[in-house]
Amino acid sequence: MNLRAYWRFVVVVRHFLPLGLSYARDRHRFLVFGRSRQVSSEQRRERARRLLDSLLTLGPTFIKLGQLLSTRPDILPPEYVEEFAQLQDRVPPAPWEEARVVLEEEVGPVGEAFDEFEDEAISGASLGQVYRAEVDGEAVAVKIRRPGIEDLVEADLRAIRWSLPIVMYFVDESRSFSLDTLADEFSKTIREEMDYGREAEMLTEIRANFADNDRIRIPGVLETHSTSRVLTMEYVPGTKINDVDELDELSVDRTALAETLQNSYLQMIIDDGVFHADPHPGNLAVQPDGTLVFYDFGMSGRVDPFVQDKIVDFYAAVASQDISAILDALIEMGTLSPEADRQVMGDVMELAIADARGEDIEQYRVQQIIQQVEDTIYEFPLRLPANLALVLRVATVVEGVCVTLDPKFDFITVATDYLRTEGHITAGARQYVEDRADEVRDAAESMVRVPPKLESALDRIEREDFRVQADLEDSDGVLERMTRRLILGMVLASGTVSTALLYAQSTLPATGVAAGGTLLVAGLTYFSFRRSSGLRAKPQFTRQSMSQQQSAGDDAGYARSYGPDEDGK
Predict the structure, then answer these.
(1) Which of 48, 232, 315, 491 has its CA 20 to 30 A from that of 82?
(2) What is the C-alpha to C-alpha distance for residues 277 and 333, in angstroms, rounded to an integer?
(3) What is the rounded CA–CA span in Å between residue 520 and residue 529?
């Protein structure tokens, strides 16, 4: 295992080192010194494509890593996120004889365990492949873990962990924490996805949550034929959800289907706390009567109650266009830094909502809001909680599928109606009375707290024992630069005087030494003023730049809405 890991480490470094050197040159033009250089969006996109090719070449583990990175805009620029979102998990299936060894080690001889078994895989992916079979006269789908994948993944995980210190050298300090936690998250995620026992548990739990919903169909698990490496489920055929022509032939109400899809994810995330995290068209199908079918629960997650409450607050704030409440919800969820400029972020959110409204002022889509937030996450940058990254990704992909079904689909109206129906938010006079009651209670508490504090402060002033402590924040380094220039100027002035005195009263060598030192200080002073751009604040976001990002993002938006497919569909 160690020898394989060492070899994979060498291969990984060979693929990623050129990109790392390019990034280092961006920070320091000549690697170790010099000013940084500007990199255009097109240059970043070209690098993202090269990195994507490297991930595909390195194989299954790195394909999964790219898929995870596509949900982390706090680590990668938007161009990389967009390119990685197109990453497809399509790998030719392993030979049947190799897969048969795994199957028989887990469930026994094929001829005894199954009435019939088709030895040609109906789908193949990096971690597993699916076959069609029959047990007791019932059609089943059998998912078998790819032979030998465990050793390859473990070797790659070691290589990634060994590569991390090298990667840390090329990134700034603000992203080093996110990268370190990402490595831990990825190790946990890929091991969970290889554990078909866990997938069976998640599938069974989510299926039970929808047991009373006749519009949702989730295949049941055949436990007698399932282990940690083999998962046998009901075979439930259906039409791929984005095949709108066939859906129209079946007379399926696509608007109602989109609402069913959206409401099912709202229930999973907000009410149940456990959700299917891979909702692109390959994992969603529709039966002739309009029933929605879910496949592949290898990628699934949980949401804790606190995040559930904050998601409700976020949706409610978006519905009411309360910018301050939107920012508060994002900060409390950990998506937005508390130190971020609220005025700038408020402008970002206002623009996002304005761009999303369309012709009808009441219709706007949360996908565009989330995408704007994702872009700003990289710019600030921030730390994005792992499960929240999945939730953001799910929201974006689901909205894209819904718009494919119904171009006029109103995400916010459907979400608001669901939250009101389930009692998460209230409307009208009751909500107004509750808000005013909260304000009165807060005001009453303040009336009790403030007078003693005010009296204490006045007593200290009267005793001349009142002090004010102030901290001067110089986040842009302006004060530091001004101080440096002042010192250089003083040294330059004294050096000039000293040189003149030595020239008049001392030897020529002494004068030359003084003159050389003075010229050096003069050069340093000159270059300090040449770099004066730091004194001019350059806003990270403007309405014009955000509009440009939005227009550029529209071209890649459709691709972004459809993420990787475990079954390669």
Answers:
(1) 315
(2) 19
(3) 15
Using alpha carbons, list the distances in angstroms from residue 425 to 312, 336, 554.
8, 23, 32
Round the average pLDDT of the chain to a whole number and report it. Answer: 77
Note whether 9 and 154 are within 8 A (CB): no
Q: What is the pTM of this model?
A: 0.66
Position 83 pLDDT exceeds 50: yes
Residue 399 and residue 258: Cα distance in Å, rounded?
Answer: 9
Classify the phi-psi angles of 363: left when phi > 0, otherwise alpha if psi is within -120 to 50, otherwise beta. beta
Beta strands 216-217 and 292-294 are parallel
Measured CA to CA, the distance from residue 382 to residue 333 in angstroms comes to: 12
pLDDT at 60 over 80: yes
- Which residue matches tokens 């003084």? 514
380, 337 in Cβ contact below 8 A? yes
Q: Is 60 exceeded by the pLDDT of residue 402?
A: yes
CA separation, residue 368 to residues 91, 301, 357 (Å)? 32, 23, 10
Instruction: Give the position of tokens 């047991």.
Output: 211
**Residue type, position 79, single letter:** E
pLDDT digits (tens, 9 = 90+) for 246-302: 999 999 999 999 999 999 999 999 999 999 988 878 889 999 999 999 999 988 889
Residue among 126, 110, 120, 130 at smallest CA distance from 231:
130
Residue 421: what are its φ and ψ, rounded to 5°?
-60, -40
DSSP letter (8 states) at residue 566: T
Q: Are 274 and 302 in contact (CB under 8 A)?
A: yes
**Distance between CA atoms of 494 and 501, rounded to whole angstroms?**
11
Contact 419, 315 (CB under 8 A): yes
Q: Is the dihedral of CA 364, 365, 366, 370 positive or negative?
A: negative
Based on the number of CB atoms within 10 Å of its own CB, is 544 exposed (0-12), middle (13-18) or buried (19 or more)? exposed
CA–CA separation, 324 and 304 (whole Å): 24
Q: Reply yes or no on whether the pLDDT at 316 is more than 80.
A: yes
Q: Are 313 and 329 in contact (CB under 8 A)?
A: yes
Residue 495 backbone phi and psi in degrees, to 5: -65, -40
Helix (H) or strand (E) holding 131: strand 128-135
Kindly list the distances between the CA atom of residue 447 and the CA atoms of 435, 443, 450, in Å, as whole numbers in the listed order.
19, 6, 6
- Helical segments of 108-253, H only: 110-113, 149-170, 173-194, 196-209, 244-249
CB neighbour list of residue 212: distance below 8 Å, 6 or more residues apart: none
Q: Is 465 exposed, middle or buried (0-12, 13-18, 19+ CB in 10 A)?
A: exposed
At residue 183, what is the residue type? A
* Whole-number Å distance between alpha carbons of 39 and 49: 15
**152 Cβ contact list (under 8 Å, min separation 6):** 4, 59, 60, 61
Instruction: Count the helices and strands in the chain (H runs, E runs).
Output: 21, 11
Nearest Cα neighbor of 387 from 330, 314, 304 is: 304
Phi-psi region of 464 (alpha: psi -120 to 50; beta: other; left: phi over 0): left
